[in-house]
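hey can u run this one w/ coenzyme A bound, need the structure tokens asap thx
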Amino acid sequence: MSKPLAGIRIIDFTHVQAGPACTQLLAWFGADVIKVERPGAGDVTRSQLRDIPDVDALYFTMLNSNKRSITLDTKTQDGKRVLEKMISEFDVLVENFGPGALDRMGFTWERIQQLNPKLIHASVKGFSEGHHYEDLKVYENVAQCAGGAASTTGWWKGENSPPTISAAALGDTNTGMHLAIGILTAIIGRNQTGKGQKVAVSMQDAVLNLCRVKMRDQQRLEKIGYLEEYPQYPHEMEAFADKVTPRGGNAGGGGQPGWILKCKGWETDPNAYIYFTVQGHAWEPICDALGKPEWKTDPAYTTPRARQPHIDEIFATIENFIKDKTKFEAVDIFRKYDIPCAPVLSMKELLRDESLRKSGSIVEVPHKTRGSYYTIGSPIKFSDLKPEVTASPLLGEHTDEVLGELGYSKDQIATFHAVGVV
Ligand code: COA
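ok here u go:
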């Protein structure tokens, strides 16, 4: 079948992670994504964190599959003209340059609209337009700090408990995913109005959107004075004194208390753990699984509120129960009782996970110069579309092809090469 986004042409003026993650997603679903890169070097991730000399790094290949690449120096007059032609003919321009870079290149939103009123201009910046930090350049961890993730992640007491960064790309890929939703919405809007529009997502906003539950807790804390679901309750109430949502360690802070628990081998294996959730209505099955039937009727344990003062003891009991079981054995026991839990999986285990391979969530992709590489496929599954992941392009691999499609003659293209425009 033809892919749903077939026919949508995207100028991919993105680099590093936030923008490329967005355009890669759209390319999987059928959009023709043309990555525009600076001649000579291209996206900085081609050469960052290389594992093979002179070959595109995994950092690049894992974020730029299914795209075509052209080189174009958009600071030259000829380069600007080529970009103008692309803007006139394409549907979407996506960029995540530093603040003001596109304007300095001569492509203000006003100019873009003059060239093509139907074009959708999608943009990622660290902070939103008009924000008092709008001039700042931003990378992942900066956004995690500015968006509330760092202040609410990690441990809350002791010398080694500063605000903590998540390894998940909450600032980068997450922002790209928000932008993709914005682009698809603007495309549907354009079908109704015939007009393009500017779609902007700031990394701070995208992180904050994922910290919604922590903003919920901040307001509850200000009203009630403490947060019952946090591990500080009820033995460390001083943690709530300043009325700032505290870090909760491995507690979810939601309605279901949970914790990371040691399994057999934790002394030597840093990932021999499971996450265990004490789901309210699964309390009786939990008691059955642990062989603690007396907890089912003891008023000190029968309700979530009654259990909270004993939550450490409950987790210690579960840990004692699983201390001679591997994380997989422990989960196999608890799953029979319908208890929400999972092993802590390492990257090594995930890379080799048969179910993820089978579902296409991890795929092996042949590549012209690196042999083949593994990458993460579409996390979105459809009944009528199986996104096929193809290799990321070499730098400028499609320059001549795309310029030809734009109507440039072989001679003109040769001249562009000779003077370094492409
Ligand atoms: N031809 C000519 N010039 C080009 C070009 C091309 N094809 N592509 C980029 N450039 C130029 C830009 O015009 C800009 O020039 P100028 O600053 O002289 O006007 C220059 O390259 C650098 O762009 P910039 O985006 O500022 O790169 P940087 O390496 O200094 O900063 C970031 C990198 C990620 C910090 C910055 O781009 C940023 O804050 N982006 C927005 C937030 C974001 O997406 N961050 C996370 C990325 S994962």
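The CA atoms of residues 253 and 311 lie 13 Å apart. anyway lmk if its weird
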